[in-house]
Each structure stands twice: as C-alpha cells, then as structure tokens.
Write a structure and sequence with these properties.
The structure is a homodimer.
Chain A lengths: L6 H19 L4 H8 L3 H13 L3 E4 L15 E4 L5 E8 L2 E8 L4 E8 L7 H16 L9 E8 L2 E2 L6 E3 L10 H9 L3 E5 H12 L8 E6 L3 E7 L2 E2 L31 H4 L1 H8 L14 H13 L3 H24 L4 E4 L6 H12 L13 E4 L2 H21 L16
Parallel strand pairs in A: 3-6, 6-9, 10-13, 13-14
Antiparallel strand pairs in A: 1-2, 3-4, 4-5, 7-8, 10-11, 11-12
The first copy, chain A, binds a DNA duplex (30 and 30 nucleotides) through helix 1 and helix 3.
Chain lengths: ~425, ~425
DNA sequence: CTCTATTTTTTCGAGCCTCGAAAAAATACT
DNA sequence: AGTATTTTTTCGAGGCTCGAAAAAATAGAG
C-alpha cells in the first residue's frame, strides 16, 4: 500500500525537481525554476546553492538573448558536464553500438560494430556486449569513475524492472539478464530497456510540443514495435516492457508471423511480410530472416511505379496497421503517431489503406485528426532516448537519492 | 510540468494517507496505521487526534479478536459514519437507481425506478435523474447538508475529467454533462463515471487478494464493456473513459456491430450478437435493441443440451473474446479476469473457445495460468464501486484538501 | 558620472512538520 | 500487589519551506 511522506523525502524530491527543471530548460535562471516548479525563490536558492556546491550544477553566463532588460541580469544554471557520465549500449539486428555521454547530454565517445546476432552463441553475444563496454571504460581519455550508469536498449521484450531481455527477434536466445551481467562485471548500475520505448523518450525530448503527454512511436522495420507514452508516462506491460503492438491480432488464423503464431499485425506489416506479399509467396511462407534496406527501397519504388503485387503488399501493411491502431485507439483514445524506421520512408504507400482501415474503427471516428509523422532513422533516436533515460536515473537516484520513491511526480518520462 | 512539493502539502498528503488506511483496514489501531503508512507513531498520533477532533474518525472498542495480548490494548480507529455521506446514481438500460451511503460505507437509503431510456427525450432523461436525486435529498430522515458528493455511473463512454457522458448505448442522446447539471441543480460536487470502471473498483474492494494491482473486469451484457486496473490504478483513455474493449476489431469487415461499424468484438460476443448467431440471422442483421435475460438463459440451456446454432453462437463469442483478450494481453501482459453480467452465467459455454483462441495469441503463451472468475450480477458491483469512488473523493478532496495534487500516491484506485 | 528604477538573488526569522526518546497509560501474568 | 508488555501521548530537536527584507547587479535618466 502507499506510504506516507517522510520529512526528509521532501528535500530530496524538490532537489530532483530542480535538477529535472534544469535538464529540461537547458539554462534556466533561478527565477525561472521557481516559476516552473512552483517553489519559492528562497527554496530554489538554497537547493541550487547546494547543488552547485556538490558540483552537479554550474553557473553559466546570463542567457545572452534577453540581456537588454533592466535589473540584475539572470544567471543561468546548467548541468555540470563533468558531474557524471552514462554509457548507452544499443543492440539491434547484427549491430552493436555504444556511446559515452556526459552529464549535460553531449556524446563524448562512441564505438560501433557489426555482428551476426542471429547465429551467435549466447555467450558470444554477451561477451561482445561486455567487451565493447570494457573497451570504452578502458579508454585512457575517459575518467572511468565518472560513469554512473549503463543503459542497454534492445529490440524485443524486456522485463518491467529493466533487468533482463526476455525475448528478442535478433537472437534465438532468451532471458538474458544483461543488467546483472553488466553490474557484476563493472560494478556500475545498469538497466535493460526496450528500443521502442527509448524512441518514444527521445521523441519527447526532440519535440516536446508535438510529443508531450500522449503519443505513439511505431517502429516499422523487420518487425513492428511500439513505444507508448500515456499521460506523460511511458506505458509498459505489467510484467514485461509490453506494448507489443506488432503482435495484436489482425486476422484470426491469418498470415504466419515470425513469432510462430498467425494473424499478428506484424505478419502483414513487417518488412518480411511486405516482402512475402510482394513476391506473392503466400501467407504461409516462412518469414525470411532479413530483408536489406536496398531491397525494401526497390520494393517501394516498384510500388510507386505501377499497380502490382508490391503496391498491394504495402496496402495490406497499411490495412493491418490501421486496424491495429483502431483497436489500440479503442483502448486509449487517438493520439499523435510517429512512424519510425526505414519503412517509414514508404509511408506514402501505407497511409491511404491505413487511414481507410482506421476510419472503420471506433478510435478512427475522427481519423482525419490523427496526425502521422515519419522519421526514417531509428538508431540515433534509440540512442538519444537511452541516454536521456540513463541521465534521468542519475538525476533522480544518484543526485537525489530516495526521491524516486513513489508518486509519479519525478517519474515522468524525460 | 511537475510541481514541487510545498511544506503544507506534506500534512495534507499524510492526512489523506491515514484516512485511506482506515478506510482500507476498517478498524486499525494507530500502531497498524504507522506500520502500513511507514510514518512514525508520533505523526500518526498527531494526525489521528486532529481527525478525531474534526469528527472524521472515531475511536471504537479494541478489535475484539486478539485482545488476549499482554500490554495496553489497541484502540481501533474507524470512519465516523456521520462525517459525511455520498449519493450514487446508476443509470443503465431502462433502469435508474440511487443510493445514499454514509461515510463508513453503509447504505442508508435507496430508490430504484424503471424507465424507457432508449426512447426518452434528452430532457426527460436528465429530468428523471435530477428528480430521483431530489427526492432522496428531500427525504426528511436525511441530513441534506451531509451529502458531500454525487457519483453517477453510466453504461457508455464518459470523459476523462468525469464530467460528462459522451456516448451511451442506453440512449440516442450524446454529450450530456451530467456533472454540471447535478452541480448546478444541487450545489454538490458530482462526477460521471463509466460503469465498468466502477465494477473494477468494487472488485478490488471485495477481493483485494485476487484483484490487487492488475486485473480486468469484463461486462458481458447486451454490449461488452471493460474496466481495467493496471499498476494499482484505474486505466482510462486519454480523453475518454477509454478501455472500449468491446470495440476492438476482431474481424476486419466482419459482423455488424451496434455501433454501426463492423467486426468489433461486441458484434460477436454481445447478447444481441449471440442471439443473432443462434437464430442464424446472418452477420448483417440489424442488432436487436434488447434481449431479455430469460431469452438468453433459454439460449444457454439450448446450447448446453445439443450441438446446434446456439452452441456455435457461444463458441463464436468465446473466440472473439479470446482473440480480443489476446490482443489486449499483447499490450499489457496477462492479468486475472472477472467476467461480470448475466452472460457470465454462461461462461462455461464461452470458455473453451475463448481459451483456444487466446492460446493462439502472443499474450496467451501461458494461457492456462490466466484465471477467470464470474459474477453474474453487475448492478450491486457498479453501485459499490461508485460508492467507494465517491467516498474516496471525499476522503481526499474534502477532508484532506489539496492532497490529491500530483503523484499517484493518494490516487490509487481505492 | 552619479543617481534612480528595476530585477534577480540571498539572507533571516517564523511557522510547520516529522522524528526519536522518554513518559504515560492500560492491560495480562505471576 | 507488583512486574512485564504493548500502545499511545508528550516533548524537544532538527529540517524544510515561506515571506519579507536586504543585498547585488545592471540599464537608463539627468
């Protein structure tokens, strides 16, 4: 049951609030912080002077823009880049990349690597992840002690506690407790996150006007993934990362899905499904392991050029996505959608059927008002989201320990 | 953006916490409250003495059971029934009922009434609701001034702010701002709630062991409704009451639904759909306005007796519910389900096909572990939930004003 | 160049709140 | 009747936020 608020929680929570305000606003003055948090100037003054003393914040020059004002100029507060650093690890199909990010959010080092994730042994996969992290940590240019957290993003299902990958399309192996493995190895707190959830977080940071409290990020790729933000918070399943939009049922007993079941949205809208339909292989044809981006582009070009099986394949994809979104919108009400990933570049081929389908569902009553945006490049988005998530953890758990306690006040996505 | 915690919020929140603890536990001692809330004995002592002084709590005799213990006996705290009262109004198809409930949760008065909701004019419908409330308020036995809140539950879609009914199957009229109407009329704060959400709240109070943080209540009735509790909180859409499980798409372009669209779960599993299939009228047959409980029982009896169209109708209903739940479980992970309503009595006919369908979905991987419970009588459940919701509002907004501020700490379903 | 108006930031005392320790209260056991 | 035990209250200490006032830092006016 919920727990009372202790007296010392108060300061911790307000510290977290101030740090969050600075991270969001970039270089706010104390006065601005007081306004956004609703706390008094005295309190902000006390907290920020603590935080500066601890090296978490630094004073920077007044925000250059409006310095024509009369009185004492505002002095901007910003995050001290050297206060800490985090490491992001993004593991996707045949690709592994890490980045070191300072406390202010700047990338200070990175490394990328191709692997054959589908055929690697479990130990080899884990080994590669550990090794690439170790190489970054051993980088002489880097103060190892400053790495306060590692966040690993992976395509597939993770558990709610962000400790393990439960299942992933990029490897046949399951239940890999990456968080424990990394923590045992490096003694740095680690979490495992779902890639689409990180996309959603990144979108929110990139465009907070459009992606604020309620929106959907859909990854159109070999498979179909989703990151969902509802009421300002990342929506996850009760046990897993959840939000397996791609495996909602579009056609009972329909096309064969990569997951072994039938009729999932993904079995119509994933790259392999579009490929299969475009090649007219039939819905029972075994999903191929991978379709190159070049092949998908060729398919899209063909579909644009003439009415044929390629165009029909995209139409079917749009229909599946549309009915899927319609069902989703029946549950959560319509919200803005971001289509992310290589196939988002072919959204023009998908959109008509999608809109037609969605218009026939409960959530689609005002389907014209549902807006779609596209972003073909998912990797930078995942990495950004991962970085923000890791930094937010540092903000809250390390620099304001105990503040994450309960209540969503400090738990908001960003 | 989120707001800092003021110093005076602290007491308010902890007051709310204590009240909630008493409401949940029934007759806890101060020591028990200290344990469940995590606050110190001194704090609990101070707060409870305030609350007793204000007439919100009362001291009752020690909890009779374990009074064989050694030391000073615990003195139980309980809600003062006279501290306030709330009124519930439940509006369902052709039926209107109100109840007055004291602060401790006991029904002190009630009234029920049959109406022809489908054919009534908008004003007549509103008029009946206002009139029945007025009759209760004018009851000489009742201290009118003590009614602190009115909660109206209605089948259909309400808005997130709980101010208005947006759409309902029980009436052709839409967008009725019942909350404003009642507040203008009686100057008592009012809310409008979705019936299935209230069912979920009631289930949680009735059986907190089974229905704790994550569960689903599904109303099997003329239509199909759902109340969903996730992570301890009632799940609603972003704009509406949401959770329109019945209008998730089961079969694109499938059977005609009462909502005018095609292929919704309800178009296979609602009473009218089962009836239509049992009578072999075809999927395009216009949904009938109402099927009597007696007719539905006859259908169920026939289905149990022989393999025929009746049995097939229930099979189809189970299949639709199963695939729908499967899609839902893809998003939120599996959770216990309560089947509520008259047709829950025919769940034996529905279950086999339901389990078979769910086993073919992503969420159904462990379909055997998904447990179903049935409760044929929805009305008492709706009223109970409504009462608890209204009382919780009083707990938080009236007796601990400002405490509902932000953070879910105090917002939990109960 | 000095003075004034203006705005931001810090300082300081007041008022709450929670906590821990100790005291008081109320009972069962010996 | 006295002792052990458990619950509840009391009381002082320590923290936190707030408002008001003071201090700091600048632009504009004369």
């Amino acid at each position: 049951m919920s727990v009372g608020i202790r007296h010392d929680d108060l300061r911790r929570r307000n510290r977290a609030m101030v740090i969050a305000a600075v991270r969001r606003a970039g270089q706010p003055s104390r006065t601005e912080i007081a306004a956004t948090t609703g706390l008094s100037h005295s309190t902000i003054s006390a907290i920020s002077s603590d935080l500066i003393g601890e090296g978490i914040l630094t004073e920077s020059k007044p925000s250059e823009a409006g310095s024509l004002k009369r009185g004492r100029p505002q002095v901007g507060l910003s995050l001290n880049p050297e206060a800490a650093a985090v490491m992001t690890v993004v593991l996707s199909l045949n690709f592994l990349s890490v980045a070191v990010i300072d406390y202010a959010g700047q990338v200070v080092a990175e490394e990328q690597r191709r692997l054959d994730t589908l055929t690697m042994s479990r130990d080899a996969l884990i080994g590669e992840c550990v090794a690439i992290v170790r190489r970054r940590l051993e980088d002489p240019d880097l103060d190892v002690r400053s790495i306060a957290r590692i966040a690993l993003a992976i395509q597939g299902i993770t558990d709610t506690r962000a400790r393990a990958m439960l299942w992933s399309p990029i490897t046949p192996h399951t239940d890999i407790a990456f968080a424990d493995i990394l923590e045992d190895e490096f003694a740095i707190p680690a979490t495992v996150e779902n890639d689409c959830n990180m996309m959603a977080i990144a979108l929110r940071w990139r465009d907070p006007d459009r992606y604020r409290d309620d929106f959907i990020a859909i990854l159109l790729s070999h498979g179909i993934g989703m990151g969902l933000v509802l009421k300002g918070e990342l929506f996850t399943g009760t046990h897993s990362s959840g939000g397996e939009f791609g495996h909602m049922i579009h056609q009972p007993n329909g096309a064969l899905c990569r997951c072994g079941r039938r009729g999932c949205v993904e079995a119509y809208a994933g790259n392999y499904a579009i490929w299969r339909n475009a090649r007219q292989l039939g819905e029972d044809a075994e999903p191929v392991a991978d379709v190159s981006d070049a092949d998908m582009r060729a398919l899209a070009t063909a579909a644009r050029e003439r009415d044929g099986p390629e165009r029909e394949a995209y139409r079917k994809a749009g229909e599946a996505l549309g009915y899927g979104l319609g069902s989703l919108f029946a549950l959560i009400d319509p919200a803005p959608v971001a289509m992310v990933g290589a196939s988002a570049a072919a959204f023009d081929l998908i959109e008509p059927a999608l809109r037609k389908a969605i218009a026939q569902t409960a959530g689609g009553q005002h389907s014209k008002s549902i807006s779609f945006d596209t972003e073909p490049n998912e990797l930078p988005l995942i990495r950004e989201g991962c970085a923000m998530r890791a930094l937010t953890f540092v903000d809250q758990e390390i620099f304001a320990p105990g503040a994450q306690a309960r209540g969503s006040a400090g738990k908001s996505v960003a």
